[in-house]
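User: Before I run my own analysis I want an independent prediction to cross-check against. Here's the chain; please return only the structure tokens and, at the end, one sentence I can use as a sanity check.
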Amino acid sequence: MKILVAVKRVVDHNVRIRVRADGTGVETENVRMSMNPFCRHAVEAAVRLVEAGAATEVVVVSVGPRQANDVILTALAMGAHRGILLEAEGRVETLAVAKLLAAVVAEERPDLVLLGKQSVDDDSNHVGQMLAGLLDWPQATFASEIKVVGSTLEVTREVDFGRATVAVALPAIVTADLRLNEPRNAGLPMVMKARQKPLAIRPAGALGVDLTPRLMVEQVAPPAERATGRQVANVAELAQVLAAEIAELEAL
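Assistant: Structure tokens:
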């Protein structure tokens, strides 16, 4: 089984997000970037399937600027076999990303495509579902467990009422939840080996996909500062404060 894993480069989750002074978006200049956390779980799932003998090759693909090859190298250090960077400057919307991935799928012909269920920058949760629609493949989203059973997958999904297990025929699309696994930290020897693995860089525009944005972001603003809390001396004073606030709200 051949697995294609899509990964995204985002602002590192340990970095405090700052909005640009002109309000056009989030500050990314001179900010630490890393692989989207959900994508790390997708890579780990693919590598574990290889280690279990259920898969033979893991190909990692990303869409973004030339600097995005660092997240591909991270995936290669984790155990993926080769990488593909579809180089594109500026914002690439989710539908365009799905179309680019569909073009890669047509070339690579994988049996399984793994993605993070969403990216922590825009939290759109679109690409996996859009890709499944474009390919007309079965999909299982928010996966917390994946088992290969013959020519099908049994995927346990995180849903509103708990968990649900579904069976999907291959080829299929699966998006990873955080509960799927614990991603490994690649040691220095694996990082050095990763630089020797194949990594192809191709212009995204060469795949015949229109990358023109269809959505306009008018303004981005940080959330309002939280009001300063106050301390009370005892329960009686707390009750008085709450009663006063309730009366104030009722008067509105």
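Sanity check: The chain has one domain: 2-207.
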